[in-house]
Structures are given as C-alpha cells and as structure tokens.
TrEMBL record:
<dbReference type="GO" id="GO:0032021">
    <property type="term" value="C:NELF complex"/>
</dbReference>
<keyword id="KW-0251">Elongation factor</keyword>
<dbReference type="InterPro" id="IPR010405">
    <property type="entry name" value="COBRA1"/>
</dbReference>
<dbReference type="GO" id="GO:0034244">
    <property type="term" value="P:negative regulation of transcription elongation by RNA polymerase II"/>
</dbReference>
<protein>
    <submittedName>
        <fullName>Negative elongation factor B</fullName>
    </submittedName>
</protein>
<feature type="region of interest" description="Disordered">
    <location>
        <begin position="519"/>
        <end position="545"/>
    </location>
</feature>
<dbReference type="GO" id="GO:0003746">
    <property type="term" value="F:translation elongation factor activity"/>
</dbReference>
<dbReference type="Pfam" id="PF06209">
    <property type="entry name" value="COBRA1"/>
</dbReference>
<keyword id="KW-0648">Protein biosynthesis</keyword>
Amino acid sequence: WQTENGVLLPSLQSALPFLDLHGTPRLEFHQSVFDELREKLLERVSAIALEGKVEERYKKLEDLLEKSFSLVKMPSIQPVVMCVMKHLPKVPEKKLKLVMADKDLYKACAVEVKRQIWQDNQALFGDEVSPLLKQYILEKENILFSNDISVLHNFFSPSPKTRRQGEVVQKLTQMIGKNVKLYDMVLQFLRTLFLRTRNVHYCTLRAELLMSLHDLDISEICTVDPCHKFTWCLDACIREKFVDNKRARELQGFLDGVKKGQEQVLGDLSMILCDPFAINTLALSTIRHLQDLVGQDTLPRESPDLLLLLRMLSLGQGAWDMIDSQVFKEPKMEAELITKFLPMLMSFVVDDHTFNVDQKLPSEEKGPIPYPSTIPEAFTKFLQENRIACEIGLYYILHITKQRNKNAFLRLLPALVETFSDLAFSDVFLHLLTGNLTLLGDEFALEEFCTSLFDGFFLTACSRKENVHRHVLRLLLHLHHKVAPAKLESLQKALEPTKQSGEAVKELYNQLTEKLELRKPSPAEVTETPSMELPLPAVPTPASR
C-alpha cells in the first residue's frame, strides 16, 4: 500500500531509510512534499491566469475548479480551490451559492470572489459595509471632540490625500475594486444614511471614495461617475484651502454644463459640496474675497468670483433638501444676501480698520473713541433665517477670533445664541471656535469676557445640547488655569453633569475636577500662609534717611 500510494521516484526508495535513521517520521516527509507541491500548484494557477488566449486560460481554470471543488472543505486543499476561484472573472453561479451558504468558506474566499457574490446580493454587501461606515463616523466625531485643542492642528488640518489613506476608505476601495455595480451600491448606502441622519460626514466619504479610486487610476469607475472632474478640481481647492480664479472658472464650467435631462447629477454634486471640508474651503475663500473687496471699494454684487462661491455654498447647503425632495434644481439665491448681508459684514471690517486707525491717532480732549458695541438687528435676523448668511457669519466670527480681535468677537457673540437650525452649536463650528479661543487665553482672566462667552453663549445651550456641554468642558480642560478662581467655581457648578448626561460628559467633568483638585493649595500651605503676614520690621528706605 505504501509503495502504491507513495512518491513514485525510483531514486527515492533507497533514500527513505536514510530519513528513518534520523528519526524523521514518514508523515513529516510526505507533509513537506505535499506543501511544496501545493505551493508549485498555486504558482502555476496564477501563471495560467496570465498566459495564452483569454478563452483558453479560463477554460483550464474552470476545468481545474470542477475537479477540485469537491475538496474545498479540506484545509490542505482549500487554498488551491480559492486561488482558482480568485483568478476566474466569472465563477459559476452554482459554486458561488455553495460558498455563500457556508460561513467558513465565505470567510476564506478572496475579495475578488466576494465581489461576484456581493454584486447580486445587496443585503450581504450592506452587512459588510455597515460596520465600516459606523467606524468612519465615529473616527470623525472623535477628532471633533478630541481633548487636544489647537489652532494649528484641527479637524481640517490633514490634506485630502492623507485623509484618503484612512483605514475605512482604503477597505471600501479594495472591496469595490473596479466593480461599478458595487460602487453604485456604496453611493446609494451613503445617500440613504445621509437622508436618514443628516450627518454630513457621509458627504465627505462620498468625495474621499471617488478620489481614492482616482488615485488608483480606476478609469472603469471614474469615467462613469459624472462628478469625477468636478470633485477632482474641488479636491485641489480643498488642498490649498482656497478657490483661486482659474479653478473657480473650471468649477463654474461644470455647474453650467449640466444639461437638460441630466439634472439628477446636481444631487450628487450638492452632496460633494456639502462635505464639511468643501464648505470650509468655500467659506474661508468668501471671507478672503470680502476683505479684498473692502480694499478695492467694490460691492459684493460686482464680484463674479464671490457670486460663484455663494452659488456653490448654496448648492452644498441645500443637498439634504434636494435629495429628500428629488427636485434637482439649484436653490434660488436671495438677493438680500448679496445686497444687504455681505455689505454689512464688510462694514464690520471697516469698523475694525477705523477703530485701529483711531487708536493710533494722538488723543484729543474728547478722549478715545469707544469700539462700536451694538450690532444691527438685521445681522441677527439674517443669522436666524438664512442658512448661507449664517454659515458665512460664523466663519467671519472664527476669522476675527483667529486675529485675536476681542472687541469684534464680544460685539458679535450675542448674535450666535439663536442661529439657523442651531448652526452655532454644531460640532464643526464649536471645534474650530474652541481652537481659536486658545489665542485669546489671557482674556479668560477677565470677568466681563467670561460672562459674555460662558453665560451669554455656551451655557444657554448646555442643558439641551450635550455636544455643547462636551465642547465647553474640552475648552476648560485646556484653559482652566487662565480663568479667575471665582468664575471657575461657578462654572464648575453650572457644568455638573445630570443623571441624563452621557458617559463622555461625565468623563470630561471628572477629568476637569481632578485637574482643579491638583491646583488647589495643600492644607499645609494654607496654614502656613498667615505667618507671611506678620508685621515686618520697618527698614528705612534710602529716600527717608
């Protein structure tokens, strides 16, 4: 039996007793031969998949699969069967169904085979993608709520290319491969989740996924996605954090080029423009344009570049409504936004210039001119009723905070208490605001500043919005040593978590309490302090001699 089933090599028969002398069991010898043969077979399968005419090579592989598939559950043979399936562009339906029905086989097969299973089984593909999407959203939220508050390293610091290297984007890119059907399925999942949750991070993933496939030159998908060139151009703007004139014209060309009957593409374009990274770039560019216009004595309505930025902001901000209503047309821009609101923002810039010039002039008898403290009622109204105005207004406030312009910040802060759909209490804005406020660290020692910021703004929403509670605690963890002790004590009481508060709030509050405990002087120091107040012997000063 051994002779019949052994390795039939005449020269081997005399060599085998030599192994016996070394105490090597025959099983070990046969196992190593088997492993070696399997490696050779795997190499040969991979080679067959690349040689000869297409029909012939796949015929060979199909024959091989037919012969070997019955042994697929044998651990030693399984890798060969899986390798054959991996190299077949179309595995027979019957075999796919058998793999799908067996959990272990499904787990063991290559992603190339899984793609063939997924493209006809949306529910199964959804089960695979869903945990990745949850992980992606969680990662974004963790960055927004990170305890590291910095004006230099914030949510928007990583470049688009760096973000695309993230685990989730890379996994999804690999799962999709060159399969247009799977790509469409992922986009459909993202649209559905965006509609269900209004979470704008799904829009970021939509753009990142397309650009990740673009990086790999997967033309099969990039050429059929009508948003590809628009996203590519916008991606370059996001990298620079500015929309220059040349790219602005390109982007305008794409928007103007949407033909009749193809309006549905606006739904996808609006989703790409709704990505917080796109909104950030458009809003920063808008603020920069407004400052330039002040210097040029030009009104907003006379700047085509500015009007294009507003058009894109409007399209991005209207993404949810457009996809929800399935009415694919660009939102109408309100004339008052351009004729009243933006000139009002420009007047604030002028107020700052005027005040700064006044400060430098020699003071006359009438005394220094105070900084304007009132804000036009119309400004507050715009922030409450117009989404685009609100977004630009918030970015203007971030801009003045970054410039350490305390006067302008305190003047406009009351307008943030009530904004369009509470945008001033959104995570992205609060993340940026807390970072910029670190530049005004020394102001936290002043009662007036703290009262305006905490009592007048943050604490108005803490009880109803847990995210605001978290952001305030993040800020205090970073700047508590700058705040006056009496104010800090009252803030500590006001920010105490309730029974309904989530774990994150409780955890942050405990961290803050620990930090404050460490700062308190120890009892020993407290008892010694009176000794310092003993009357000191009078020492005559040189002047009194």
